[in-house]
Amino acid sequence: MKTLHYVLITLLATFTLNPKLMAVSLPSITVGGVEAKGIRTDPSNLATICMYELKKINLFDVQSRHDIEFACTEKNIVLNTCLSKQCLTQVGVLVGLDKIMSGSVEMFGNKIYTSFRVLDIKSNVIEKNFSMEFLPVEDQIALMVELTIKKMYDLPYNEFQFKQLTTEQTIENNLNNPQIKKLNLSGPRFGFSMTLGPDGKSIRRPENQGGMAAIPILSQFGYQFEIAYMNKGNIQGLFEVIPNISGIEHGLFIPSVTFLHGVRSNKTGFEFSIGPSLVVTKRSLGYYDENGKWVLAKNDLENNGNVSKEIDRRGEFGIEGGLLIALGKSFRSGNVNFPVNAYVMLKKDSPRIGISLGFNSKK
User: Fold this and answer.
1) DSSP structural state of residue 79
2) Of 47, 109, 194, 244, which residue is least crowded by CB atoms under 10 Å?
3) Superkingdom of this entry's organism (predicted)?
4) Which region, left, alpha or beta, applies to residue 101 given φ > 0 means left and ψ of -120 to 50 means alpha?
């Protein structure tokens, strides 16, 4: 009885002082060949990624590929190209493994497909065989491998990351759209606009009739402020504010501000935008007499002409609106963007057309 008691105490002390003896022995595993098709990542790096992910899930005793590659070299086996069941079995038996993984990561069409299988060496049976498809985001290959392995073993995974890499309808972000950066074209703008219709005629009038005695082309100088509120694939949604000063060459100070909503391709730089434009303008009430001369109504109260409110340097300030529609493209040289836009402003019977140029550093 004393002997049995002594044995039990000894065993208890042994396991207490050596907790490793109580640990469950994990099956040994390594990664054989992982095929890469249509992607930049090479097979060796894919195998290394798989090794790290297997270590993280704590289900296996992951054996170093360096030691196994050394043993394989002596038998003329190239571990990185070991994909067949026969080759995997040969490696497993050679180094005394319990299991060995192989797989592939392939870009096909607009999808990336991951596929992994695990061979049990003792039974010579493929015990796990799992495949997934992802959006074509090559910079997230490591995360795709992680998600595939976790789902293969029914382990918890980040559902947000999974949706971002598998569902096209999710909101774009740096995870599923790392290659395409938001193109920000905030910066100075300059250009020219041409006024058509009655307003163009008013600008041509002699200065003593309130005109500018010039062709109806005005210079513009301003600055574009923009905010990107949506980034869907290559397409960017924009809100832009553009304050401008016009007419400097005619000794005038004509302020305006334009508010635009638009879309732009981050990849090609093409842009379309539309929105209201507010312009500070001087106008006077008057008419054109039989000689084509502009006469202020206040100077001829008994006239029978058709009275209208026309642009007049002698008139009163007012704010007028119009709808501006613009098309443009950004050109790039080194780290500098050069946005070029053509636009039309729809405004009653006097539309304006123009061109705007700008520049900013690459963002």
Assistant:
1) G
2) 109
3) Bacteria
4) beta
